[in-house]
Amino acid sequence: MKTLSGLTAALLLSAYCCTALASEADDANREFIRLQESFSQQLRVQDNTPLRQMLEQQVRQNPLSADDARFIWELKQRQREDQQDKPTHGALYFVSFTIPQTGLKRMLTEARRYDIPATLRGMVNNDMKTTATAVMALVQDGSASGVAIDPTRFREYGIASVPSLVVYCESGHDVIRGNLRLKLALEKVVEKGDCRDEAQRLLSRGETR
């Protein structure tokens, strides 16, 4: 059973890594489009007629191929779909394997209790095998059912230190930083956060387990 659980963890980790890599590539493409649109906007508002005329001439002389135009359209379409599919409420628990093992096991156990995904910035020493071994050790002793590797979420919420809890909802999001028990961190959001209803929902779910 332990071997099967370990294999399951490795497969989950591989899926998470592939998803994160694909997400990172999409993120780079979206950032490229955003920068191009921002630059275009700057050109529109600035009184720089010669430069604008030169760029317009370049566009006329070098039109996008059908494949390039389709590629850009697909990127924009995927960006819109990503925004539509993105959950509007929930929570994320940002952790790292740099946290001492005893503390990390406690954090992951609490995250599982409140059904909050544990999220890592990257792999241990940038090595898949080392990371898979570390995750399997946590899964086999029951500390976690799995972790996600997603550096884009760290950037999205400006997470620079761990552990950090993010509770997000349609009103925005709340960040609680520091080595607090998850219950206490959620209670802080309930007290004064924008997403107090979501934090209360998570608390209530955890208390029933």
Notable characteristics:
8 helices, disordered N terminus, alpha/beta, 63% helix, single chain, elongated, 209 residues, Glutaredoxin, 5-stranded mixed β-sheet
Account of the 3D structure:
The chain has about 210 residues and is α/β, with parallel strands linked by helices. It has a single domain, classed as Glutaredoxin (3-Layer(aba) Sandwich), CATH 3.40.30. It has eight helices and five strands. The chain has helices at about 1-45, 50-60, 65-85, 100-115, 130-140, 150-155, 180-190, 195-205; strands at about 90-95, 120, 150, 165-170, 170-175. A five-stranded mixed β-sheet has the order 3-2-1-4-5. Helix 1 crosses helix 3, helix 1 packs across helix 5 and helix 7 (about 180-190) runs antiparallel to helix 8 (about 195-205). The chain is elongated, with a radius of gyration of 22 Å. The two termini are about 25 Å apart.
CATH level 1 name: Alpha Beta
Structural class: alpha/beta
Quote the average pLDDT: 77
CATH-derived architecture: 3-Layer(aba) Sandwich
Number of strands: 5
How do the strands line up in the largest sheet?
3-2-1-4-5
Order of helices and strands: HHHEHEHEHEEHH
CA radius of gyration is 22 Å
Detail the poorly predicted runs: 1-12, 18-22
* Overall geometry: elongated
Number of domains: 1
Distance between the termini: 24 Å
The helix fraction, in percent, is 55-70%
The largest sheet is: 5 strands, mixed
What percent strand?
Answer: 5-15%
**Remind me, CATH topology?**
Glutaredoxin
How many separate helices? 8
